[in-house]
Write a structure and sequence with these properties.
The structure is a single chain. This protein has 193 residues and is an alpha/beta fold. It has a single domain (5-185), classed as 3-Layer(aba) Sandwich (Rossmann fold). The chain is built from 6 helices and 7 strands; from the N terminus they run βαβββαββαβααα. Strands 2-3-4-1-5-7-6 form a 7-stranded mixed beta sheet, sandwiched between helices. A hairpin with a 2-residue loop joins strand 2 (41-43) and strand 3. The protein is globular.
């Protein structure tokens, strides 16, 4: 059966809900809303839902361990479903991409992202697919306060469009493979549409 675990990274609790670091949670919330799926089952140290898409049945996972322990939750889900790393898609905020861009990437390092670092520590390597949601870099060096800062109103307005673009990209990847989705979507910018 065609199955992926799609793990959106974020921090639990209303205090963090609209922060940049919660882009992964916001993406899964948007997917759940549009596809009429609920991500409420408590298991794998997270909240889980199931998304039937095309001929696939995918597990949506929002780890509730706080960002820097995300790997624990992801590992439990992979082991339970006996899936290889190639069947993991991690959705996360990305400082190195400007706001309004969403990119797919296979493998790579963690780039200082604590959620990715935790997953790579648990899994032993970083050879999974990432759906990276651009948040841009702060004008000054303090990235911690920046990623944990609330998304500003002008960006909140555009965010649904950005997340919808990410969802289109994800659906194409699941239907037609990573290379096709990357070639068609990786250069899009959702600020100008």
């Amino acid at each position: 059966m065609n199955m992926f675990i799609i793990a959106g990274l974020g921090n639990p609790g209303s205090h963090y809900q609209w922060t940049r670091h919660n882009a992964g949670f916001l993406f899964l919330d948007r997917l759940a809303h549009l596809e009429n799926v609920s991500i409420t089952r408590k298991t794998f140290s997270g909240l889980v839902g199931e998304w039937k898409q095309g001929d696939g049945r995918h597990i949506l996972l929002k780890p509730q361990t706080f960002m820097n322990l995300s790997g624990r939750s992801v590992m439990q889900a992979l082991q339970f479903y006996k899936l290889p790393l190639s069947r993991l898609i991690v959705v996360h905020d990305e400082l190195d991409l400007p706001f309004g861009t969403v990119r797919l990437k296979q493998g790579g390092g963690h780039g200082g992202h604590n959620g990715l670092r935790s997953i790579m520590e648990q899994l032993g390597k970083g050879d999974f697919i990432r759906l990276r949601i651009g948040i841009g870099r702060p004008p000054h060096g303090d990235t911690v306060n920046y990623v944990l800062g609330t998304i500003p109103p002008d960006q909140m307005e555009i965010l649904p469009r950005v997340l919808d673009g990410g969802l289109d990209m994800l659906e194409m990847m699941l239907d037609q493979g990573l290379p096709k989705a990357m070639s068609l979507f990786n250069n899009k910018n959702y600020l100008d549409t």
